[in-house]
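Would you kindly consider the sequence and fold I have copied below?
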Amino acid sequence: MELGSPFQRGRGGPGGWWIVDGPELHLDAEILVPDLAGWRRGRMPALPDVAYIELAPDWVCELLSPSTEARDRTDKLDIYGAAGVPWVWLVNPRLRTLEVLERSEGKWVLNASHHGSGPVRAPPFGAVELVLGDLWLASEPSTPAEKDVT
């Protein structure tokens, strides 16, 4: 919702995007459900009233967990790249990190990496400051040293 409000509605923000929570994507023969996906309104003027979306998003966000991280970082990135998705965010709540991947010359390139709780501007949403601390659960330690090891 931190991104959705300014980018979808444009009130006090840049607008121009559809941000969808858990959309079912049919990208060629592959079916994926990213945690979040976004389309520029210039490419998709209205959200289709369908069960799944076949148009590749302009941005995808995957929340990494121990059970999904390997697939998110390998198979899904390959599929997103082949479909033409230009931006992927990998968010790791356990480590409190945000990795911004950009598709360049057929490869995923780390555009930016953020850690902690401070404010960041992350492409393709650099027009709005996002506070990383708003993404983390207060009870989650950000490093092994913060864990109670008694």
Notes: Residues 4-146 form a domain with the tt1808, chain A fold (CATH 3.90.1570.10).
